[in-house]
Structures are given as C-alpha cells and as structure tokens.
Amino acid sequence: MKTTAVKDGDEYVLNGAKMWITNGTVDGVETGDAYLVEASVYARTGKGSRDVSLFLVEKGMKGFSLGQKIEDKCGMRASMTAELVFQDCRVPASNLVGEEGKATLCMMRNLEIERVALAAMSLGIARRCVEEMNRYAKERHAFGAQLNSFGQIQRFLAESFAEYQAGRSYVYQVARNLKLDSVGNGLDADGVKLYCGQMGKNVADRAIQVMGGYGYVGEYNVERLWRDAKLLEIGGGTNEAHHKNIVRDLSRQVGAAGSSVAWQLI
Ligand SMILES: Cc1cc2nc3c(=O)[nH]c(=O)nc-3n(C[C@H](O)[C@H](O)[C@H](O)COP(=O)(O)OP(=O)(O)OC[C@H]3O[C@@H](n4cnc5c(N)ncnc54)[C@H](O)[C@@H]3O)c2cc1C
Q1: Do the strands 145-146 and 141-142 form a parallel or antiparallel pair, or are they unpaired?
Q2: What strands lie across the sheet with 4-8, from one edge to the other?
Q3: Does 75 sit in the ligand 1 pocket, CB within 6 Å?
Q4: All domains of the chain, ordered by start, with CATH?
Q5: What φ, ψ does residue 246 adopt, rounded to 5°?
C-alpha cells in the first residue's frame, strides 16, 4: 500500500514494491505478462492522497522488475511467490484502470471475492482429506480390528465430516449472496474464510493422524494438503485480521436500523 504514483505528462511514475505476490513469476526468472497494481497517486508537490488507483503494469515496462523469489514455502508449491519492484517505473496514463483515486472499492470487492474463493479451496482440501481418511480407516486393520471401529478414529472422521458439511453450506450460502459488482459482503467473506480456513487445516491434520505413518509421508497426499491448508489461515487475510474485521462489522450493526441481528437475514 506504500507504492506511489506521480503523474508526469501522459505517464505515471510508480515507485515501491509488492511482496508475497502469488504468480509474481512463473518460471523464477521473469515477471508474468501483466499485473494490476495498486498505488497512491501523489501530486508533484509531494502532497499525497490516501486514495488508491489501479494500474495495468506490463512485462518489460521500464523500471518494472522481479525482486526476491520466495523459496522453501511450506505448501502451495505449485505456484511461485515473488516480490515485484517498481523503480521509477513509467506507465502510460492509458494504463490507469478506472478513475484515479477510485480503486479502493475495487480492491475491497476483489478481496471479498478472493476470500470466498480461498474458503472454497479449504473446503476442497477438507473433502479430499475426509475421503482419504475414510478409505484408509476402513481398509487398514490394527490390533485385529478395522481402524474405523476404534472410537478415537471414529471421532476424527465423524467430526471432520460434520465440519466439512457445515463449511460447505456456509461457502455456498455466501457465494450465492455475493454481489460481484459492489462491496458489502465483507462480514461473511471474513466469516466463511475464517471458518473454512481453520476447518480445512484441522481436517487435514486429523487425516494425517488417522493414517499414522502413511499420513505423514507423501503417498496419500494428506501431508501436502495440510501444508496447503495452512496458507489459508494466512494469505488473503490472516485469522487475526478476520477476527478484527468480523467484530468491527458486527459492532457496527448493533443499533443499526433498530436491529442488532441484521446478519441473520441473509
Ligand atoms: C504463499 C503466499 C502467497 C501470498 N500471495 C499474496 C498475493 O498474491 N498478494 C498479496 O497482496 N499478498 C499475498 N500474500 C501476503 C499475505 O496476504 C500476508 O502474508 C498476510 O496478509 C500476513 O501479512 P504479513 O505476512 O505481513 O504478516 P504480519 O502482518 O507481519 O503478521 C504477523 C502475524 O501477526 C498478526 N498480526 C499483525 N497485525 C496484527 C494486529 N493488528 N492484531 C493482531 N494480530 C496481528 C498476523 O495476523 C500474523 O499472525 C501471500 C502470502 C503468502 C505466504
């Protein structure tokens, strides 16, 4: 958010850096072809604006380069993460997307959509983990009995199934109500990602436990799914950010339009 843009004739000059950018590079050498980059537009006088503008920055533009490449990620290793650097990067004014200073709404709306999508990712992880541990617990015998006959294993499986189903309902409910052309879905976008992010990781964790040694190694994929699931408690907003946002939004509703339970109506 500290990246700045200064208008210079029919160009904008961008300075700053964006860290942790998913697909910041695809081959570890070059940037991707095009990015939508947010920057605060500053007047030449140095007087700044807090309003954010959106620019289309393309590969090869002067001053645009790849910074650090993030190595050794815990999970999500199929996508590369990198830093993008803008050093006196000159962008044609025609690459301003929308109106100057009007990108905050786009940014917030995109964040809402992203959070629902990330919740859906957690859901997929949980579903696969339930399937894997269910199959394994049925096939594996230990101490002369099917694994799924042990109460502790039943608890892992049953709770995972019920939590997955609860997450599924929440994801579909929020996705159905999502207004793609406006903001205003923040409370549930935060809520669904908070719930599903933790649910997906917990279910993956249980799957590893149910599968014992095989859970901990790659053969059944659940250890990879756990590593992928962990990111969903961090990327797109941390759990802590969701806690704060949810409480802020809930608190705004107290007394609003004579009701403190507007959230029940959606
Ligand atoms: C693999 C990966 C891909 C990513 N992709 C993108 C991307 O494409 N685009 C993008 O913009 N970002 C991306 N991110 C960045 C991601 O959104 C941030 O890492 C995340 O928001 C946390 O910010 P931070 O790393 O600066 O942690 P910090 O802000 O340093 O936070 C560290 C810890 O402190 C907690 N914390 C911080 N402030 C508070 C507070 N006020 N109250 C309570 N707790 C607090 C956080 O919740 C966290 O647990 C990616 C990150 C990763 C790891």
Answers
A1: antiparallel
A2: 64-69, 81-92, 11-22, 4-8, 34-42, 52-58, 96-97
A3: no
A4: 4-97 (2.40.110.10), 104-265 (1.20.140.10)
A5: -65, -45
pLDDT over 80 at 243, yes or no? yes
Distance CA 246, CA 237 (A): 12
Our mutation pick for probing the ligand 1 site, out of 1, 201, 238, 244, counting the most ligand atoms within 8 A of Cβ, is 238
Ligand 1 mutation target, pool 110, 234, 243, 247, most atoms within 8 A of CB: 234
Q: Is the CB of 21 under 6 A from ligand 1?
A: yes
- The string of pLDDT tens digits covering residues 73-117 is 999 999 999 999 999 999 999 999 999 988 988 888 999 999 999
42: confidence class by pLDDT, cuts 50, 70, 90: confident
14, pLDDT greater than 70: yes
- How many beta carbons lie within 10 A of that of residue 74, not counting itself? 11
CB hemisphere CA count around 108 (13 angstroms): 14
Residue 152's closest CA among 190, 209, 109? 209
Average pLDDT, the chain: 93
For residue 55, the one-letter residue type is F
User: Per-residue pLDDT tens for 142-182?
Assistant: 999 999 999 999 999 999 999 999 999 999 999 999 988 77
Q: Is the minimum distance from the CB of 76 to ligand 1 under 6 angstroms? A: yes
32 touches 26 (CB < 8 A): yes
- Nearest C-alpha neighbor of 243 from the set 182, 205, 198: 198
